[in-house]
Amino acid sequence: MINIKSTSEISKMRAAGKVVFGTFKELEKHIKPGITTKQLDKIAHDYICAQGAEPSFLGYAGYPASICASINDTVIHGIPDDTALKDGDIISLDIGAVIDGYHGDAARTYPVGKISDEAQRLIDVTKQSFFEGLKFARHNERLFSISATIQDYIESNGYSIVRNYCGHGIGKKLHEDPEIPNHGIFGRGVRLCKGMTIAVEPMVNAGGFETKCLSDGWTVKTKDGSLACHYENTILITDGEPELLTLIE
Ligand code: MF3
Ligand code: CO
Fold first, then answer.
1. 144 lines ligand 1 (CB under 6 A)
2. How far is the CA of 227 from the centre of ligand 2 (A)?
């Protein structure tokens, strides 16, 4: 069942999105060679709590940290640890915050120091795929038009879209209906309607689309060891332009 949010629920979703956005701004000051992912996790945790919110991921299905920190060939769900960032790495940070009972969720991939042109192109194409898909995040459009547009953009740039993880509806729960694949058939899927809040999150591999999950039960890496990127925002469907709740200009 897809929940349509009321005006007052939307205000709470905006507040949650703002906390997530602010957490990225805070972390961006610290993404440099030498910092560990555990240190980034603590900075995020403390920032989220200082806003009167709670980290959505901490304890979710037993997840042991406040953010996901996924370096290089880690696609998603990297658990913060004592690994220090190195010059030339790319790091995907995924952040969720809940305030007043409503969640916001977003992800970004950042360069650490100086990265290769190829790694930068992967970051740029992944982000742009989100904005290509966003063109169909409108009242009365079909859900999989977003998915198909993301897939097409990624594949026409020579990369692969991860298929075994999806975006999702979001609200009182971090994961609500519908599931939002990043591949599919244009013009299919449920009709979007104003008041829906969805998290669209392309996960993109430089090589093949296959992934493997490590024995910690969380860390997802590319099977072929190629680089991976992630970009996500929580989106409100309106009767006009979609509103990005986790990207505030
Ligand atoms: N953005 C991811 C998601 O929406 C983060 C989940 S991490 C978890 O699914 F720990 F909360 F599972
Ligand atoms: Co998500």
1. no
2. 20
